[in-house]
Design goal:
Elements: E1 11-15, H1 19-29, E2 35-39, H2 42-51, E3 56-60, H3 71-83, E4 89-93, H4 98-106, E5 111-114, H5 119-148, H6 165-174, E6 181-184, H7 191-201, E7 209-213, H8 222-227, E8 228-229, E9 241-242, H9 244-247, E10 252-256, H10 263-275, E11 277-279, E12 286-288, E13 292-297, H11 301-306, H12 312-318, E14 321-324, H13 335-349, E15 356-357, H14 359-367, H15 373-387, E16 392-393, H16 395-398, H17 400-404, H18 415-429, H19 434-441, H20 445-454
Helix pairs in contact: 2-3, 13-15, 18-19, 19-20
Length: 457
């Protein structure tokens, strides 16, 4: 039996204006394990393609009585290729000639069959094209996964402090479910690590967790990134592209910085969450997706809803369960464990013989306010491992006083240090609202995110 990569029978759409031809195709293909749909006109072919996905399409080149030019079929072929260039199209006609075959192949047909056909030839052509189609689909998904999916090793979730125990309890209860989860907390508190832990505990753990920084996606590319696009949908759409929701099929999508999604895009995201269906940009075909949604934000979404900046109905869809992460300054018992974890990671990465901390360094780590939370601690330890000249990290290696930047004049700072101070102050001024801070600094949201990552904010 011919089956697709997901285990379902290979699905073929056959189009001809003569009923007995369609019946003959069904009688030939069904015993071979194919699922066959039929259409008797180009209009019905287009409707079928808009409603379902096919592993191959078999079309006649003539549909109007007494017409032998093949022009109707050639036009239909061009429309199918424009709709979905990946699906293999095989054309057939009783008026075969070299010129028509060449023109059909030029327009994107994968093969050509003359009526009356030889059964073995038709079966061989279909089998070859279906297998090739599957292989190309699998390769496309693998390429997208290699580009977008998280690294193989999930970051270790370190939390022993009393402040983190309620978080651990909720994670243990909610993780094995399919419930949508909203993770809140300041920048750098570890919201993505929580998302990865939730996914690892769920029945979907063997399927992908696709992370999307929604706040960093330009408004004009939002739909393309999340839902995909077809070739020719816009100027730079040179090939079909799989969206993040399709890529996460059977798994989960992590929507980071969800509070910074513009209102116009919030409506489109809500529709997908309500219906479980997506449409690629430039396509009229609806595709069902089965994904769990985990989102995160440092913003006060309740206040954003009250001020009209965030849709309340979208918030209801996102926060079936809400998990709030405390800042690092409220879980100081975890600081030595986290620091040791990062020390081990970077000592191995940079092949440095660094094995621990001296007493002063531990005290400095515990006393520092950590405005950038766990992310700032991560960057601090990476720098300390690189700068350390002894087997133990010294207090000076941490350079925490320099990071505060409160007692220094601007004239004494480097350009990068000044930029870091300005970015921090803008974010503090607007209470972590990245869009407002970016506007005040004269930057795009994406540019501000890159600077935040650079400076460990």
């Amino acid at each position: 039996m011919i089956r697709s990569g997901t285990g379902r029978p290979a699905r073929v759409l056959a189009a001809d204006d003569q009923e007995h031809i369609l019946e003959a195709i069904e009688l030939l293909l069904r015993p071979q394990g194919y699922k066959v749909d039929t259409a008797r006109s180009p209009a019905l072919v287009r409707e079928a393609l808009a409603a379902a996905s096919y592993d191959a399409v078999l079309i006649d080149l003539n549909y109007t009585r007494d017409t032998t030019s093949g022009q109707e079929g050639l036009d239909l072929l061009s429309q199918i290729v424009a709709l979905d260039s990946s699906v293999p199209v095989i054309v057939m006609t009783a008026w075969a000639n070299v010129e028509l075959a060449v023109e059909a192949m030029r327009r994107g047909a994968r093969d050509f069959i003359q009526k009356p056909w030889e059964n073995e030839r038709m079966l061989a052509i279909l089998r070859t094209q279906v297998e090739l189609h599957r292989a190309l689909q699998q390769a496309s998904c693998l390429e997208a996964e290699n580009r977008l999916l998280r690294a193989e090793r999930r970051p270790e979730f370190i939390a022993t402090s009393a402040a983190m125990q309620p978080v651990l309890e909720v994670i243990s209860r909610v993780g094995p479910s399919d419930a949508n989860v909203l993770v809140t907390g300041e920048h750098g508190t570890g919201k993505e690590v929580v998302a990865q832990t939730l996914h690892a505990l769920s029945p979907r753990a063997q399927r992908p967790l696709v992370a999307v920084n929604t706040g960093a996606i330009p408004d004009g590319l939002f739909e393309s990134e999340l839902f995909g696009h077809v070739k020719g949908a816009f100027t730079d759409a040179r090939t079909d592209r799989i969206g993040r929701f399709e890529l996460a099929e059977g798994g989960a999508v992590f929507l980071d910085e969800i509070g910074n999604v513009p209102l116009r895009q919030q409506a489109k995201l809500l529709r997908v969450l309500e219906s479980g269906e997506v449409e690629r940009v430039g396509s009229s075909r609806t595709r069902r997706v089965d994904v769990r949604v985990i989102s995160a934000t440092n913003a006060d979404l309740a206040a954003a809803c009250a001020s009209g900046q965030f849709r309340e109905d979208l918030l209801f869809r996102l926060n079936t369960v809400e998990i709030h992460l405390p800042p690092l300054r409220e879980r100081r018992e975890d600081i030595p464990l986290l620091a040791a974890h990062f020390l081990t990671r970077y000592a191995a990465r940079y092949r440095r013989q660094v094995q621990g901390f001296d007493g002063a360094a531990i005290q400095a780590l515990k006393q520092y306010a950590w405005p950038g939370n766990v992310r700032e601690l991560d960057h601090t330890m990476e720098r300390a491992v690189l700068l350390c000249r002894t087997p133990e990290i010294q207090s000076a290696d941490l350079a925490l006083n320099l990071q505060r930047g409160q007692s220094q004049n601007l004239e004494e700072l480097s350009l990068e240090a000044v930029e870091s101070v300005l970015v921090r102050k803008a974010l503090q001024r607007f209470e972590g609202n990245v869009s407002q801070a970016a506007e005040a600094l004269g930057l795009s949201r994406g540019a501000l995110y890159r600077r935040m990552e650079k400076y460990g904010i």
